[in-house]
């Protein structure tokens, strides 16, 4: 850590909306945030003065970027593990480290490790041929979920196949795959936890996530009608995974709720879409919490600021002129909170989110939906 008279410097590799929103928290904490961007017009590059242009796949660029940082962290999980290890061996505090981050980068490694620590997971196997998929289906039934071992997000890199013929089409992509048993879930949940280098951990309330075409469209906090014991179990699972994997910073654990219990679906080791509601909805936002954790500062309270919080993602619609409808949304609901990511508007692209707070779930949910519907336009 720098001397008391010098602000700590956190370097965040990646300049997307997660880095952009982390800047808001950094200002209040007195932290200097530096980002490594591919281009000067990326989401975070537009608002962060300490933007360094470079390639996260280039070790020299990473070394130069990390010089002078008290901690280096990420807004995505694509930095090569070998590069992270080189930085760590040179004395850079990289958080999370390569040994933890690999579990968010490689789904096969994740499944192996989660199974070893007893986390509830679906049946799975590595597959590289149609016959391997058929063998898996023979044991677990159709449909089969095929997942790219690396690189998938927002529904990409995931295929639900009903037959050997459909599996053959996926295998033609030449992507390394795992097969997972299809989980007949009742709903999707997410738990966001934070862990510091010396082992302090906190958990945010369990939320329900509403997905459409693999994209999170809505987050409801807390998850409605979730049994207290189920909520506590979900938090215990997430905190156990964070500790067993040696996570430093934030860990998002996406889960399926089924008739027979909880199943871990995916992991992310960074601020996460399921936690954007915490900016207004909790005493300590996920972005502030991540900075606290990677700097090994005492973690903040995850307590909610309202009984019900709903976050709705804003996707680009047919009319790119969002600000023509901006005034209407603000006038209609002065309590709504808008967050724009500084991205060019394209149909289907995630360009922002809105958050509504209140006491009645249906009312709060309707307010959030109304805001995004109006912003997408035309009205």
Can you put this structure into words, describing what you see?
- By secondary structure, this protein is α+β, with helices and mostly antiparallel strands.
- 33% of the residues lie in helices and 26% in strands.
- The protein is built from twelve helices and 17 strands.
- The protein has helices at 17-29, 59-66, 81-89, 98-105, 107-116, 130-140, 164-171, 228-245, 278-281, 286-294, 323-332, 361-376, and strands spanning 9-13, 32-37, 51-53, 71-74, 124-127, 144-148, 158-161, 177-181, 187-195, 201-203, 207-212, 215-221, 249-258, 261-268, 308-315, 337-340, 350-358.
- Strands 9, 10, 11, 12, 13, 14, 15, 16 and 17 form a nine-stranded antiparallel β-sheet that branches. A four-stranded parallel β-sheet has the order 3-2-1-4, sandwiched between helices.
- The longest helix has 18 residues, at 228-245.
- The chain is globular, with a radius of gyration of 21 Å.
- The model has no long low-confidence stretch (mean pLDDT 95).
Chain-wise SSE layout:
Layout: E1 9-13, H1 17-29, E2 32-37, E3 51-53, H2 59-66, E4 71-74, H3 81-89, H4 98-105, H5 107-116, E5 124-127, H6 130-140, E6 144-148, E7 158-161, H7 164-171, E8 177-181, E9 187-195, E10 201-203, E11 207-212, E12 215-221, H8 228-245, E13 249-258, E14 261-268, H9 278-281, H10 286-294, E15 308-315, H11 323-332, E16 337-340, E17 350-358, H12 361-376
Parallel strand pairs: 1-2, 1-4, 2-3
Antiparallel strand pairs: 5-8, 6-7, 6-8, 9-10, 9-11, 9-13, 11-12, 12-15, 13-14, 15-17, 16-17
Helix pairs in contact: 1-10, 3-4, 4-5, 6-7, 11-12
């Amino acid at each position: 850590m720098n001397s008391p008279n010098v602000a700590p410097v956190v370097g965040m590799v990646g300049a997307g909306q997660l880095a952009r929103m982390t800047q808001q928290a950094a200002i209040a904490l007195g932290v200097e945030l530096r980002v490594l961007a591919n281009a000067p017009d990326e989401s975070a590059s537009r608002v962060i003065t300490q933007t360094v242009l470079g390639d996260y796949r280039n070790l020299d660029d990473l070394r130069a970027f990390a010089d002078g940082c008290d901690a280096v962290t990420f807004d995505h999980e694509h930095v090569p593990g070998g590069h992270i290890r080189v930085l760590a061996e040179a004395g850079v505090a990289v958080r999370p480290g390569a040994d933890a981050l690999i579990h968010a980068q490689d789904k096969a490694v994740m499944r192996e490790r989660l199974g070893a620590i007893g986390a509830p997971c679906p049946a799975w196997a590595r597959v590289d041929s149609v016959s391997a998929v058929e063998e898996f289906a023979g044991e677990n039934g159709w449909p089969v979920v095929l997942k790219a071992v690396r690189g998938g997000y927002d529904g990409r890199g995931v295929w639900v196949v009903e037959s050997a013929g459909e599996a053959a089409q996926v295998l033609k992509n030449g992507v390394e795959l795992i097969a997972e048993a299809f989980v007949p879930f009742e709903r999707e949940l997410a738990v966001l936890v934070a862990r510091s280098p010396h082992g302090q951990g906190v958990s945010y309330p369990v939320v329900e996530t509403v997905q459409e075409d693999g994209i999170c469209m809505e987050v409801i906090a807390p998850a409605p009608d979730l049994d207290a014991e189920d909520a506590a179990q979900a938090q215990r699972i997430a905190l156990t995974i964070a500790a067993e994997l040696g996570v430093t910073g934030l860990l998002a654990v996406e889960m399926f709720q089924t008739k027979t219990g909880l199943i871990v679906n995916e992991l992310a080791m960074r601020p996460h879409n399921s936690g954007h509601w915490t900016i207004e909805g909790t005493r300590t936002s996920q972005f502030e919490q991540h900075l606290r954790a990677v700097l090994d500062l005492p973690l903040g309270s995850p307590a909610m600021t309202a009984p019900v919080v709903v976050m709705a993602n804003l996707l680009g619609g047919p009319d790119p002129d969002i600000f023509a409808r901006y005034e209407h949304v603000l006038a209609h609901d002065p309590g709504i909170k808008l967050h724009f990511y500084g991205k060019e508007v394209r149909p289907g692209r995630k360009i922002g989110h809105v958050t509504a707070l209140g006491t009645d779930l249906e009312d709060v949910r309707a307010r959030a939906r109304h805001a995004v519907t109006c912003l997408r336009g035309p009205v």
